[in-house]
Predict the structure.
Amino acid sequence: MRFLAIVLVSTITSSCAMEVKKSDLIGQCMMLKDSVSIWHAYDNLYVGKFLLAKKQPTRLLRSSKPFGNITANTKIELTEILKGSNGSYGDFLRVRVRLLTGNYVGLVVDIPACVPYHPSKKWVVNCSLEPNKLSFNKSILIDC
């Protein structure tokens, strides 16, 4: 019985933790094709402190007004891929980038990926759980 309790507690707590994944994509430079807004979000399992999106996401936000705006041709660098899990949704990968140019240089933000509650028009298009196989929406991001 004690073993079962330990397994149950371990399963519950591990499903709420984010796991940093290694990837050859870390350090990749990309450039935005259009201007987008930076939204101040609730830092939780699904999103960090900030999220990039063209339109206001309906969930995850601390404010209904954008934190700021960034212009087309802003360069970003992929800095982190995080694996999370949601009981009904399953496993997912969050993608975080650092702004390299513009007014918010150095700010680390999430980009819309195959993650619960992220806005539609995902920037990560293939929803792979293999960090090296992620691909990005070429109508939004292009290589530097």
Summary: Residues 2-14 form the longest helix (13 residues). The helical segments are 2-14. Confidence is low (pLDDT under 50) at residues 2-15.
